[in-house]
TrEMBL record:
Protein's name according to its UniProt entry: Phosphatidylglycerol--prolipoprotein diacylglyceryl transferase
InterPro entries hit by this protein: Lgt
Gene: lgt
Family to which the UniProt record says this protein belongs: Belongs to the Lgt family.
GO molecular function, a single term: phosphatidylglycerol-prolipoprotein diacylglyceryl transferase activity
Amino acid sequence: MSLLHYITWNVDPEIFSLGPLTIRWYGLFFALAFVFGQIIMSKMYVAEGRTEGDVDVLTLYMIIGTVIGARLGHTLFYAPDYYLSNPIEILKIWEGGLASHGATIGILLALWLFSRKQKFDYMWVLDRIVVVVALGGAFIRLGNLMNSEIFGHPTDLPWGFIFLRSTEFSQVPRHPTQLYESLAAFLLFVLLYGLWLKKKSELPRGLLFGIFVTVLFSFRFLVEFLKENQEAFEDTMALNMGQLLSIPLILVGIAILIKVIINPKPALPGGRLPDSPAKSK
């Protein structure tokens, strides 16, 4: 098939530069993930008797947990020898290197701290945060597309992308796995948000979180078979690092769903713990 049948991708990852300041598509999509996430989460919290102030605090915890977790995840999972030998490089986030599994761990820890500090039920918080995390994942993968990174194996499918800005793989059409993951995350967002809109008062505790973890990381596990490895050491592995890190999260999600099916428990109204008084509006 002629290369004219494929999609040529040559987008500049930089939107514009103003002196030392450079605005990149990835950074824009990363910021939009939090902006839209806060808007949606505010509507959800207010609808369930909480305040927008709760969401402001939650967003701060989320930003810190996401950035630190994603950066440490990349340094420890994908290049520990280099970063442990050059620890100052860990701080250079602007040079790239964020891992979604690390972000997941960072978010879980940050929200646990948030729940303890603000007297929320931890699972109630998780059930609602995964709605906007799914949307955020869709934005982040679009950022990866703009960076011409994390793409797939060669393909002869008509929607294969030729990533001209890739110095190593610029001439061969490849699976646009960034788009596959972005679409999957967006559809997961639609499913979770739809369930919350229709049945928020009836959803058993842990259902949304269980669905999110199981579906998202099962898809991540499968799509890795279509993707180029991110680091050379993965070439000798039967399963790459992304797949190995996905397996325990899939098992956690399945265990939670089984628990929900066997012994469903109603969510605490407004996520308030028994000894947590209602906040005045």
